[in-house]
Structures are given as C-alpha cells and as structure tokens.
Amino acid sequence: MTLFSIPEAALDSQATATHPKTNVWVSANAGSGKTHVLSERVIRLLLNGTPPARILCLTYTNAASAVMQSRIFRTLSSWNELDDEQLQKTLSQLENEPINAQKLTYARQLFARALETPGGLKIQTIHAFCESLLHYFMLEANIAGHFELLDDINRKKLLQESRRQLLEHKDAQSSLKHLLKVVSERSFNQLLYEATEKQHKLSDFLSSLLSENEEEKLRALFNLAPDETNQQLLEKIQQIAHLPLYALTHCQTYGNQNLKDMIAKFSQLAEASCETTIINIISDIYFTTAGEPRSFSRLSCKKADEIWPFIQQMLEDKQSKLSVLLEKYQCLKSVTLNRAAFQICAIYLKIYTNLKKTNGFLDFDDLIERTLHLLQRKGASQWVHYKLDSGLDHILLDEAQDTNPEQWQIIQLLAQEFFTGHSQRDNVRTLFAVGDEKQSIYSFQGAAPENFAANGRMIQKKAQQAKQKFEKIQLNYSFRSTADVLKSVDLVFETPENYKGLSAENTKTVHEAIRVHSPGDVILWDALSKEKNEFPDDWHVTVDHWDTPAIHLAEKIAETIAGWLHKGEMLPAKGRLMRASDIMILVRKRDEFVSALSRALKQRNVPVAGADRLQLTNHISVRDLMALARFVLQPQDDLSLACVLKSPLFALTEEELFQLAANRTGSLWQSLCMHASTHLSFKDTFESLSKYRNLVDKMPVFEFYSHILNNDKGRQKILARLGSEANDVLDAFMDYTLTIQKTGLPGLQAFLETLSTSEPEIKREFDQNHEEVRIMTIHAAKGLEAAVVFLVDPGSAIWHPQHAPHLLKISLNNKHLNDQQGFIWRPNAEFNTKPSEKALSHLKERAEEEYKRLLYVGMTRAEDRLFICGYNGEKTSSDTWLQLVKKALKPHAVPIKGPAEDIAAWRFHITPSSSTPINQEASYIECPTFPPLPDFFSHKLPEEPALPRPLKPSVASLSIEADNELFSHSKQFSISPVLGEINTNRAFSIEYGNIVHRLLQYLPNCDPEKRRDYARHYLNTKASHWDESQREKALHHVWQILDHSYLKPLFSDNSRAEVSLMGIVKIRGKEQAISGQIDRLYITKNSIICADFKTGTPPANETAIASRYLLQMALYRKILQVIHPNKDVQALLVYTKEAKIFELSPEKLDALLDEIAT
Questions:
Q1: Nearest-angstrom CA–CA distance, 1005 and 1155
Q2: Does 726 appear as a known binding residue?
Q3: How far is CA 438 from the centre of its chain?
Q4: Is 691 annotated as a binding residue?
Q5: Is the CB of residue 788 less than 8 Å from the CB of residue 481?
Q6: So where does ATP get bound (predicted)?
Q7: Which helix (H) or strand (E) element contains residue 72?
Q8: Residue 521 main-chain phi, psi, to 5 deg
Q9: What's phi and psi for 129, nearest 5 deg?
Q10: What pLDDT shows up at residue 799?
C-alpha cells in the first residue's frame, strides 16, 4: 500500500474550516474530505462546550447522516480507550493548542453526553428536521398534530381520487370539455402530474393569475394586446396571404412545376372555410414543416425572369408579415388553452390539498412549504424564533450545492438571529456550509450551482455586517483519487466549451492530489456502434439475446471483471488483490444495459448487488404472481390462467396449453379440470391450483405467497427459468406484501388492486461492506467511491424536447402578476410559441450544463482506475461523455489492446507503475511534524468584564428598571430611567397610555372598514370601567393619528410596530447596554423614521419637550444608526391629544448624547 503525507496547506484549510467560532463557507472538490471536515467541526464544537442539542447538522440523504453520526460517535468513543498522553496528543493536534487536565476529563465525557442528549445529535436531512419542527409547532403551523408523511402508495391513491373528483366537479366541466377536444388524454394526465409536482409554486402563481382579469394576464404572458381577437387575426392573415390575380396568372403560365404546385395551394386556400385548414394551407405555402421561412428563389422559369423578382419580393414581404401574425395567432390559441388548463389545475390542486388535509398527510414538498410559512408567518414566527433561539447555536449544511431556494430560505430564517447581535445568549453562533458547484446534479429538485455562490456571498455580507468572523475556503486537495484520475479530470474540463456551466464562475477545474505517487490509470474503450438495423429471423429469440451494442458491451465488461477476480488482479495502490466491492459501474439511466450486465456478471459467478431501484410490476416474475392472484380470485379469467400455466411455476409447453385451450366448450379452468382426470401430466397442476384457491381465504397475503415460493419451491422454479437476478425482485416483492399487509386493507383482492394501481418502485441503499459489484446511476452514486470505476456512456442525446416538461417556467415581467416566476402550458409542438421556445431553449442549455457536471461526478468516483466506455444507437453524437473525454485525453494516451478485436483502447497515466507486493491494508497516513507552540497558547486570556444590566429609556412601561447608582449625582434630566430616576405617572395615565398604544399597534393591520368596530370592541372590553366620554376621547385621539397625512408611512404595509431594540452606548465614560421598544418604525432604502407616541399634554414647542423624552429618542436614533450605518434616521415625537408632531433636530439629539457620554 502506498503511504502518503498530507500537505500543510491542506491541513491548514481543514483546521480553518473546523474552527468552532468562525462562520465558514467551503467550496470543496470531489474527494477532498467534506464529510471529514463536517464531522471534525461537530467534534470541535462539542469539545469547546457547545451542548449536543444546540448543534444542527443538515445532510442531503439519510445515508450521509448515518455516516456522519457513525464517524462522530466512533471518534468520541475512541477517546475513552486512550491513556492521558495519547488523548492529549490527539486533542492537541485537533485543537492546535495544549490541552489541560480539565479538558481531558471533559473530552472523555462527550461520548456519554452525546448519547444521553434527548433526541440525540441533530444530524438529519432537512426534510426530517422540518418534520420534527412541525410536530413541535403544530398549532402555530395550523396542521394536524397527528400528521403523517405521505408515502408513494397513499399518494397515488389520493391522486386517483383527486382526478375522479376533478372530472365530476361542476366548475371544471367547461374547461375539461375545451381541453379534451384539443389535447390527448395522455397530455391531460401529464398536466395533472406536473401540476402535482409543482404544486406550491403553481398554486401561488394561479392564485395571482385567476384572482381577476385572468384573460388580460394570460395575454400579457404571451405578449398579446388586450383587444386582439381570434377573428381579427384570422382576417388579417387571410388578407395578407392571398396573391393578386395577375401574380397567380403569371406564375401559373410561366412557373415551373414547384411553383404551379404552390399556386394550386392558393386555389385550395380560396375555397377553404375551416379555420384550421386555412392556417395549415398558409403555413404550408410560406413555411417549411420545421417552421422555417420557405425559399422562393428557385420557383421561376427563365421566361418569367423579368416579372418574377417582383413576385418573389411580394411573397417574401408577405412571408415576413405572416410570421408575426401567425405567431400572434398561435399565442392567442395558447391563451385559450392555458386558461382552461390553469382553471383545471387550480381545482385539481385544491381537491388534492383538501384530501391530504382530511387524511392528515403531508408530502415532502409540504414539509418545506409549511416550515417556510411557519418561520415567515406574522405573529407565530416570533414565538418560533424565540424557542429556536434558546436551542440552536450552530448550523452545519452538507451538500449545499443541492439545496433548492426554498430550503435556503428556511436555513436563512433559522440563522437570521446569528447575525443580528440581539440574542438570548452572548456566545458565538455560527453557520457552516460545504458543497461543490461542480456536483450540482439535482436540477429536477430545484437546485442550481449559481445558488451556492449567491448564498455564500449573502452569508458573507451578513457576517461582515455583524462584525463576525467569516472564512471562504477552497479545498482543492483530493484524498480519494490518484494523480492520474485527477489529471484526466482537469484535462477534460480545461477548455471553455467543457467547463461552461460547471460552476458559477465558469472556470476550469483545479485538483491537487494527496496520493501523488499512488499508481493509477484511465482507460478509454472506443464506443460500440450499431452497424445495421437487423432483427433476428427467429421471432422466438428475445431482444436480450440479440447482439446489440449495449448487450455486447455488457458482455465485455463482465468478461473483464470476471478475469480480474478469478485470476487475482492486483490493486498496486492498496497492495492487495482486487475484490468485487472494489468495482462500481456507473450508468446515465437504467435501461436494458443494466439488466444485461447484471445477468452477464452472475453467469460468470461474479457477485453483483441488485438494482438500486426496482419497478416491481415491470418484472415478469411479479407479473406471473399477479396473474396467479387474478386466477385464484376469478377462475373464469382465461388469460390469467394461461399466463400462470406458461410461467415457471407450472411450465406447460405450447403444445400442452394448446391441448387445453383448443376446442374447449367452457373456460380454460373447466378444461383443465376435465383433462386432470384423464391426463397425468395435468393432475399436479390442477391439484396445486385447487390448493391455492382454498388457501387464499385462509391465509394473509404474505403467508399465501410465502407458501407458494418457499413450501412449493416456486422461488426455485422462477430462478431456474429467469436467472439469479430474479432473486432480488422476489425479495422486494415479499417485503412489499408484508408492508401492505401491515398498512393496507386485508385480503388478496385489496393487495392486487394496490399493487396494480400504485406500481411501486423500491429504492434500496447499497452496503459498501458487501463483497459485490455495484451497478448504479451517477445520481445514486453521489457521495460514493470505488477503487475501480466503469463509466458507461449510452450515446443518447443530451436533450430531447419530448422529455421536456409541458408546464414551462417563465420569468415574469408583468405588472398584473406579483410572482417572479410563472408558467405556461405547452402540451405538444402544435402549441409552440416564442415564450415556450425561449423556455425550452433555457431548459436545453441547463440540461447540457448538467450533463457535464454528471460527467465530473462520474469520473471523480474513481480512486485508482477509471474505465470510460460506451455504445451508440443508430445515430451518433459528437458531444457524448466518451467523445468529450477522448478528445481531451487521446493526445496524451497510448494505444493498448482492447477487450475485443473490434474495440480500440487507450491508456492515460502520469504516475509510473509499481510492483507493490501484496500486503495487508494499512491505515497509516504520514503526518507532518509541527514546531513547539508559543508560550502564550498555554495561558488563558482574561475574561471580558460583563456589561451592566441593560437600561430601558422608554417610560411607557411600569416595569422600568435602571442603574440608579450610576446617575445619582445628576439633576439635569428630571425623571429619565436611563439616568436612574423613577416614574411618578398616575395609574390611570399609564393605563390610558397603554390602551392607546395597543390601538395604534394593532389597528393598522385591520380592514379599514372594520377598524372602528374593532376599536370600540377593544375599548369596551379593556376599558369597560371608564366613562363613555373617556373611551370616545381615546378613540378620537387614535383616529387623529391614523388619519394624519404626514404619518401615513408609519402605518403602511412596510412599517413595523413595537420593535425591540438593543445596543451599546457610552454614558459617563462607560459602555452601557440600552434596551428599548420603538412604537413605530418605517425603513426605506435610504432612510428610517422612528416614532414614539406620547399620551400626555403636548408641549408648546420643541424647546419645551421634557429632557427625558429627548434622551429616549436620542438613544433610539443612535442605536438605529449603528444597525443601519448608511441610512438617515429621523426621530419623531407624536402627541396623541392634539395630533401634534415634533420632528426632532438631529443636531440637538447628537449634542445631548455627547453631553452624557463624558
């Protein structure tokens, strides 16, 4: 095994990233130790005194969460096994400072502390966190306390019920009638599917679109004028499209045959009356089938040369005008269609939402949306933040590049108190995120690489504004891959056309290898191509037996792997023989290649893991078991019985089945009954089927199928016919029967109905400890690694419009719609418009960029050896993975012998091969030595003196407290609590002031038409002991303020009431904490207005204002200036009795603060 040392630069970067008191944003290359950095940061946080419950670590998958927890607990538990000297050395290296005996003892306790923390360490996916948060704040989130996560089975049931209710809904009938006349049922079903997938964003858009004037808003989406009608456009199109009679006559006389054919179409146009026919003829005359302008340059004969140029120019002018008008016509047609589609979607989503609510379900999208709403909800969010603020000190985010915008909003809201300086605790609170834009491959979930960079800049700005430490770190050193693999990656992504879209900066990749001298290589196999499209003559031969390029490549890969494992191939970098678990085969999608490769490996006795995803009902063995269920439930079902008889369970031949089926007078079952008494070959089959019919009513589903597969050796029969790959399918099928038996309705009929309608897909996590070859998609392999990786290029097109969504996202620049993002529906190419083409073009560009990021992820899974191969269909492409890699590496590679004569191969490597002897695996990594630490590292810094108890300048509360001793000698400020004196207001005045303040706080949020009713109700409740005149007086004073034109901004939607404020101000030479509450605050881009309401007698002028009030506003203004240094702060004193407003002079307030500062 090759030993290697870790450069100091790599260790320094990791040490900075794990510093427990620094906000850190890490951009990390593949294999650079992201999980190690995350785990070590959590450990350092624990070691520095952070309680386990106050750390939140968000991972992308449950598997990643389990790996992190395992690493952390393994490290913490190992500390209890070390003696003091060993532990001190370990902790000193971790903390980069000497460790005292007290910290040694504390470190040994951390394992128990972490285990005993209620709920354990919060290392979980963001969906799991949101679920726990919603359970904790179910009342505030307005959801059922017993809610459950919606699984695939129940989801499909609810969607089917939603569809049924939609089709019966009276408000949807008109839209359904129009829609189903124009599009197919498949397009309609796709619309409902995509509406569900985009349910929350689409619902927000629809609520804005369909509120009023939806026709006008839809026209604006397609850039149509409000007054243009379909009939007007059609008349304009016809008027422009027709040629004058002299031109028609001239072309008919002198034109060539192509021109005469075109003139014949003008004759058809003159006779056409159907709108669709008219548009089709005009489009055919002036445009190609692809929609491009048709060329008229070669339609004339020589005799027409003198006049033809004028006619040609006329046709081209008409063509130009028609291009614009036909686009408008197409858009107008799309407006009508989209209006119907969006009305249907609105009803459908409302039904679906109500069904989920009724049944107490939330899906994964709901978890994010409800949590976001909870954290943003006015009133409830403050309480949630208060509770979270007391239990959350550090947030760590893994795979940040795959976090979508809504999830980012949640993280920002959770961390917003970290950067305000106003928290229940004064300890350092940090945000840590690690990710790699180059590995952002989940665009279908809303992730985008530019989000990672944008959020990094935003967090950096917040940290700097809060004067907190922030580090942006790039981890370029890779611990995983050899220098050969990393160099090949850098060569591939060296050119602008290849690294475009790889990251937000659009720069080439830079990787530094830790394993500099470890031997490795990159092997290229030339693509296998399809020579001709021939089908086998024998129709009995299945497609899998036909030697397609995919099947041929699968056989060659299987032969290569079998040769390695059976002959003892060396892994020089590891100093041992290769194992099955060292090999990973990556594909772009699950297709026939995966099944063929799995079968080929098993035929060669190579252990192979099952598929990471199984579509149960697609496998023939499950279909046979379903046919058996249909028969035992309905013996007259001849087709199901025929399938069962031909299945491996009974294995009747074609001749035997023909003997039963031909010339029968009754059902196939009756024929089998008759033949069983006279033909011994049918007797066992009849008895077994009769037994199953008896068992079906006596056994639960799991036991029924278990009896068939185990007791009657059904599994053995199926594996003998279909091969060992069916074993995984049967295991998944039996697991599914047990799940449905526990959660669904009892009985085989209910199970069969659930299985048929839900078509379950089983997802499985691979265990890297199993000695099996792994075959998986690149998406599934994210975060995994293997010594040897095969990257298989299917040669298919990167993008195809048929795979594009029908509901297309578009950016809005529309005054009628509030959302930044909207949707248009394009069910097929017939409804192409410029907005839809622009959206499709954007999707294509993003797909091409993600295609390259997938290549990056696939290549960087390899530790030692990387094989890149592929196959082509009838059409080949120049920008496939294999072609991109060949173009970059072939000039630097040497030809070698391929796996077959028809497959050329090349080898790329930069490290010399070594003859490493077989050795036991070592885990030793040579670490650099460090010089002795300076003496000051062993001395504890003196503690900062604690600030005095916060002073409260406002006199609006009875609970005012102050540091009386500090200002006992001052007489200038008569009764300011900041200066330590006592409030002597009468009880009624205080009660009156409090009620007026409450009215001014809450009434602006009420409906203007109902404000007086609410105010009177409040006064009658809270001030029932007052005289009627006193209540009317209070009401009059409040309305004077609310209706005052100068104060309108203070009560607008952008204003805030009762804003808590805290800051540090120098008083009498000492820094003093000031805490207060501003009655009303209005913040704009450049300025701030803060106002305080007074219910006492107003002074005659500003000079007569009590000094305590001036000091109060001066302190508020000073704190706001610190928080918002680039904004002008205007302070107002508002007296409610006469609606008297004093705009306090900034100079006077500043002078007042200067006076008390010294």
A1: 40
A2: no
A3: 16
A4: no
A5: no
A6: 28-35
A7: helix 62-79
A8: -165, 165
A9: -65, -45
A10: 83
Cβ within 8 Å of residue 761, ≥6 positions away: 152, 613, 614, 615, 616
pLDDT of residue 824: 93
Q: Which two tokens stand for residue 469?
A: 């430490």
Question: Is 291 marked as binding a ligand?
Answer: no
CB atoms within 10 A of CB 1134: 22
Length of the chain: 1158
Rounded to 5 degrees, what are φ and ψ at 316? -70, -35
Expressed as residue numbers, the domain containing 267 is 153-359
- CATH, residue 127: 3.40.50.300
- Which has the closest alpha carbon to 128: 199, 50, 63? 63
Distance CA 853, CA 866 (A): 17
Are both 968 and 1101 inside the same structural domain? yes
* Closest among 396, 397, 371 to 385, alpha carbons compared: 371
The annotation status of 870 as a binding-site residue, yes or no, is no
Among 480, 568, 552, CA closest to 792: 552
d(CA 737, CA 705): 9
pLDDT at 970: 36
Over 854-887, what HEC string results?
A: HHHHHHCCEEEEEEEEEECCCCCCCCCHHHHHHH
Q: At 461, list the tokens.
A: 């700005």
H/E stretch holding 453? helix 449-465
In a domain, 191, yes or no: yes
| Cβ atoms 754, 551 nearer than 8 A | no
| The pair of three-digit structure tokens given for residue 15, joined into one six-digit string | 């040490």
**585 and 635, same domain (yes or no):** no
Number of structural domains in the chain: 5
Q: Binding residue per annotation — 114?
A: no
Q: Residue 548 is part of a domain; what is its CATH number?
A: 3.40.50
Strands 774-777 and 761-763: unpaired
- The closest alpha carbon to 632, from 732, 727, 726, 701, belongs to 701
Is residue 885 a contact partner of residue 872, using CB atoms and an 8 Å limit? no
Please report the pLDDT score of residue 341 as a whole number. 95
The pLDDT assigned to 797 comes to 83
Distances (CA, A) of 680 to 672, 673, 676, 704: 11, 12, 6, 26
Q: Is residue 563 classed as helix, strand or coil in its secondary structure?
A: helix
Structure tokens at 147: 């809610």
Reduce the secondary structure of 735-753 to three states and give it as a string. Answer: HHHHHHHHHCCCCHHHHHH
Predicted pLDDT of residue 972: 38
Q: Are residues 3 and 357 in contact, defined by beta-carbon separation less than 8 angstroms?
A: no
Distance (Å, rounded) from C-alpha 372 to C-alpha 364?
13
Q: Does residue 31 have a known ligand-binding role?
A: yes
Per DSSP, the three-state class of 146 is: coil
Measured between alpha carbons, how far is 605 from 1040 in angstroms, rounded to an integer? 90
Same domain membership, residue 617 and residue 591: no
The DSSP element (H or E) to which 631 belongs, if any, is helix 620-633
Contacts of range 894-901, beta carbons closer than 8 Å, 24 or more positions apart: 896/523, 898/525, 898/526, 899/525, 899/556, 899/557, 899/559, 899/560, 900/556
Side-chain-side CA neighbours of 702 within 13 Å: the count stands at 13
**Binding residue per annotation — 318?**
no
One domain for residues 33 and 134: yes
Same domain, yes or no, for 845 and 699? no
- Cβ atoms of 1141 and 1044 within 8 Å: the answer is yes
Residue 75 annotated in ligand binding: no
d(CA 521, CA 483): 9
* Cα angle 410, 411, 416; round to 5: 100
Say how many C-beta atoms besides its own lie within 10 A of residue 441's C-beta.
21
Domain contains 386: yes
- Parallel, antiparallel, or unpaired: how do β-strands 521-525 and 903-908 relate? antiparallel
Phi, psi (deg, nearest 5) at residue 81:
-95, -10
DSSP code per residue over 471-505: EEEEE-EEEEEEHHHHHHHHHHTTSHHHHTTTSTT
Report phi then psi at 44, rounded to 5. -70, -35
